Amino acid sequence: MKLCVALDLATKEECLNIAKDLKGLDLWLKVGLRAYLRDGFKFIEDLKKISDFKIFLDLKIHDIPNTMADACEEIAKLGVDMINIHASAGNIAMQEVMNRLDKKFSKRPLVLAVSALTSFDEENFFNIYKQTINEAVINFAKMSYENGLDGMVCSVFESKNIKENTHQNFLTLTPGIRPFGEGKDDQKRVADLIIAQENKSDFIVIGRPIYKNQNPRLICEKILENING
Ligand code: C5P
């Protein structure tokens, strides 16, 4: 299991300071839409200069297939290690993205699919997709696996089921982690490290429990000890 730290702080400087504090640790950094729109490619470059962190650029690409493939090609040129697209863009979009990346890059980034956004409740989700969230997650996972994507962004509580319906090596990246039972903030369902491990999560995404901690490096070290030990 890998630790992925969400860089969701309000300014570039604060994000870079956290990254500097975490220098040398074996972890991934997640750069989201806000930071990328604000700070752009230079921010990715700055992070890479600090340490050889792996970078997950979380832009949740969703458009017509050709536009998605164009966008993913540009993102892959940034040299990031993992990207994501919306599964609901469909089979053709997934195929075009994967074909384009495989054709243009000898070492392409990992590509994950976003399934049901966790901000949906069942009723609002059903109004759009005519399925329960659970059914949709499994359908999206099977589609993503069959189209050659590397894994899914999902809840810890969906991770095992996704692997059982696809392949044990199909990756799951799970936000909503409170490593040692910290407060939930605005997350609805959270899991600690033990639950994440039991559910075979490959990447745990953690933001506030790390950057709001008085000693972000120490808590990361504790998490790494825990998941590696
Ligand atoms: O601070 P916290 O650990 O709750 O941050 C979780 C990170 O994971 C945030 O960047 C959030 O946007 C992201 N995320 C999430 N739930 C999802 C997808 C992404 O919390 N379903």
From TrEMBL:
This is Orotidine 5'-phosphate decarboxylase. PANTHER family: OROTIDINE 5'-PHOSPHATE DECARBOXYLASE (PTHR32119:SF2). NCBIfam families: PRK00230.1 (NF001273), pyrF (TIGR01740). Belongs to the OMP decarboxylase family. Type 1 subfamily. Coiled coil: none annotated. It is an enzyme of class 4 (lyase). The active site is at 58 (for ompdecase activity), 60 (for ompdecase activity), 60 (proton donor), 63 (for ompdecase activity). Its EC number is 4.1.1.23. Catalyzes the decarboxylation of orotidine 5'-monophosphate (OMP) to uridine 5'-monophosphate (UMP). One of its GO terms (molecular function) is orotidine-5'-phosphate decarboxylase activity. GO terms for cellular component: cytosol. Keywords: Decarboxylase, Lyase, Pyrimidine biosynthesis. It catalyses: orotidine 5'-phosphate + H(+) = UMP + CO2. Substrate binds at residues 8, 30, 58-67, 118, 178, 187, 207-208. One of its GO terms (biological process) is 'de novo' UMP biosynthetic process. Pathway: Pyrimidine metabolism; UMP biosynthesis via de novo pathway; UMP from orotate: step 2/2. Homodimer. Residues 2-223 form the Orotidine 5'-phosphate decarboxylase domain. It holds the Pfam family OMPdecase.
